[in-house]
Specification:
Helices cover 3% and strands 54% of the residues. The longest helix has 9 residues. The strands form 17 sheets. A 4-stranded mixed sheet has the order 7-14-13-10, with no helix packed on it. The chain has a 4-stranded antiparallel sheet with strand order 15-17-20-19, with no helix packed on it. The protein is an all-beta fold. The protein starts with a strand and ends with a strand.
């Protein structure tokens, strides 16, 4: 502020928040303030303002945050089948379910009720294909479909299947060239009836459908799909044949189509995450469209400053393979590829982003950390080559010469960094490496050095003042936790009901409110360079050779898991998953089984956000897509 600060306040307008907590500190003209909110449950969306107000010697300054509080959404699943299906005995038919859902489908379970059963039937698919049984008189059967969605959400739909006895008539069968279409596409329905000598008339019927969109002949119906507002529509085609003898018979077929807006979404590719392209090193990307549509045309283009020497693609079903090659890349930067897909009248564009590297290697400097002013941080860099070559020249340096930082090179990839200033500061370190063609690239990591800082956990709030440990108190104000700080405090961590302190010479001190919390039992002779609060009952410490030692309820298990993953920069658990930054990737485990791999992320951080494990990419983008 440009005038003296007298008071700091938070308030809301338009909606009352009853469970809030503020934390503020300031000197004459600078300070910081945090508002913590326990968000209440609501049944309808609330719009309100959060107002931050500073009273100064010259007046009042306010800043307003526009807030929206929405009801918690639940996963939804809707399943329906045609009301009735009519088919001749021994005829083949395909029934398609109409499904709207908000998450992945796990299984489809079709059940035919009544005897005799179909001669042939499919299982486990969105479509039910069957051959009607042979019967002596017309019978009605029941067909049930149970759909299970992720989260074990289930819905069941049923339809009645009327199987007609056609003892003196040959069965009529219909076939479709596609079962699922978008606006502008056509669906062709073909009859197996080719001899019309005994036929008096044939008719094609689709209930409540624009006749102008139908092109009819005796043995074929061509349907042009309209663009309607409905998300998804299913239609039944009836093919009715009347013989000169007066006998009649019908065959039925079902097809579905989606609106233009939904089709646009289904014609976009799923985000593959960031990819890398290296000079003179061809790369292939396997992409997948969001929907399994009949895509008629795909074009791929790039408007990069340096064009691709080869940009080729191949489409197979809803999978797209890109083959990329840039022989020369003079500068490192973003590469953007636009994918245009066409189906019927619908054209949709997708954009995928990657990094074009001007070297044949990528350095990685690890994840961001917070240390106490005056302490020494050890950093561990890594160099990745597309051909897995190793032993490239590398070194560490401070990004700015004004940072007042001392760098001691421990090895080619590891260094010790000390910030010599007295004020709180963010030090950016650069890890440089040179490839076999003398081209150099670097990666950055931020080290935050704090002198006056509050470390907030699940239970304790630990305070450091002027670089010295002050206390860890319950909720910041309650009973203090007994802790003796090691010489030259370096790091403070807290989670669950424990807190740990790390000294500049590697000594670790931990304590917990619960007498049974095994985090209190720090391994003997442990000398650490960094502490990592894994969860409420486990801590891991990184040693000077980049290896890890963990202790707590899963200490041995975690130590073994980290040892299996070469260089690890961070590890976190949330009760469901254990995730770690391993090399340049993120790996997640349920117990000892790996269930998730996010490759080439080069994460800058890994942290818990609302009980979910999230990460920040090299571009600074926050992502919480692990679970």
């Amino acid at each position: 502020m440009t005038s003296d600060i007298e008071k700091i306040d938070w308030r809301t307008e338009g909606f009352e928040l009853t469970h809030t907590q503020t934390e503020s500190n300031h000197d004459t003209r600078a300070g910081q303030s945090t508002l913590s909110i326990d968000v209440p449950a609501v049944t309808q969306t609330q719009l309100f303002d959060i107002i931050f107000e500073i009273t100064t010697s010259e007046g009042v300054v306010t800043k307003t945050i526009k807030a929206t509080l929405a009801p918690e959404s639940e996963p939804s699943l809707s399943v329906s089948l045609p009301e009735q299906i009519v088919i001749n005995e021994k005829s083949t038919k395909t029934i398609q379910a109409n499904i709207i859902r908000t998450d992945d489908i796990i299984s489809y379970d079709w059940q035919w009720q009544g005897t005799p059963a179909p001669i042939q039937q499919t299982q486990g698919q969105l479509f039910y294909n069957f051959k009607a049984p042979e019967i002596n008189e017309t019978q009605t059967f029941k067909l049930l479909l149970t759909v299970t969605m992720k989260g074990n959400i289930q819905k069941t739909a049923e339809t009645s299947v009327v199987v007609k006895n056609v003892t003196d008539l040959n069965a009529i069968e219909l076939s479709l060239d596609r079962l699922y279409a978008v606006p502008g596409q056509t669906v062709t329905v073909t009859s197996n009836l080719t001899n019309f000598e005994d036929v008096e008339s044939v008719s094609w019927l689709i209930y409540d459908f624009n006749e102008d969109l139908l092109q009819k002949s005796n043995e074929k119906l061509v349907i042009t799909i309209p663009d309607e507002s409905a998300t998804q529509t299913s239609q039944q085609v009836e093919y009715k044949v009347k013989l000169k003898s007066g006998a009649e018979k019908s065959a039925f077929a079902n097809f579905s189509y989606v609106s233009g807006a939904i089709a646009k979404s289904l014609l976009r590719v799923k985000d593959p995450g960031e990819f890398s392209i290296y000079p003179g090193y061809p790369t292939s990307l396997e992409l997948e469209f969001r929907g399994d549509l009949d895509i008629e045309e795909v074009t791929v283009s790039s408007s990069d400053y340096e064009p691709y020497d080869s940009l080729e693609w191949a489409l197979e079903g809803h999978k797209l393979t890109l083959n990329l090659d840039k022989k020369t890349i003079t500068r490192k930067g973003v590469t953007a590829i636009k994918i245009t897909a066409k189906a019927g009248d619908i054209v949709s564009e997708s954009m995928i982003l990657g990094t074009a590297h001007n070297t044949l290697l990528v350095p990685y400097a690890g994840v961001a950390e917070t240390y106490i002013v005056g302490s020494e941080a050890q950093v561990f860099g890594q160099v990745f080559h597309p051909n897995d070559k190793q032993n490239f020249p590398s070194h560490w340096q401070a990004k700015s010469t004004d940072d007042n930082v001392t760098i001691k090179q421990v090895s080619d990839t590891s260094a010790s960094a000390k910030y010599n200033g007295d004020l709180e500061h963010i030090v950016t370190l650069e890890f440089h490496a040179t490839d076999e063609f003398d081209q150099t690239d670097h990666s950055e990591v931020e080290l935050r050095y704090e002198s006056n800082h509050t470390f907030t956990g699940d239970y304790y709030r630990c305070t450091v003042t002027d670089g010295e440990f002050e206390s860890c108190r319950e909720n910041g104000y309650g009973q203090p936790l007994t802790l003796t700080a090691p010489a030259e405090l370096k790091q403070v961590i807290t989670k669950g009901n424990y807190a740990c302190l790390l000294g500049n010479y590697g000594t670790v001190a931990c304590n917990a409110k619960s007498p049974h919390n095994p985090v209190k039992n720090v391994p003997a002779q442990l000398l650490a360079t960094k502490l990592n609060a894994v969860d409420a009952n486990n801590v891991c410490a990184q040693l000077s050779d980049a290896s890890w030692q963990c202790w707590g309820t899963r200490g041995v298990e975690l130590t073994d898991l980290l040892a299996e993953n070469a260089t690890v920069h961070k590890v976190l658990a949330n009760g469901t998953l254990t995730c770690l930054v391993s090399n340049k990737d993120i790996k997640c485990y349920e117990g000892n089984t790996q269930t998730k791999l996010i490759e080439d992320v080069f994460p800058q951080d890994l942290f818990i956000y609302i009980r979910e494990i999230c990460y920040r990419t090299a571009r600074g983008t926050l992502k919480c897509d692990i679970e």
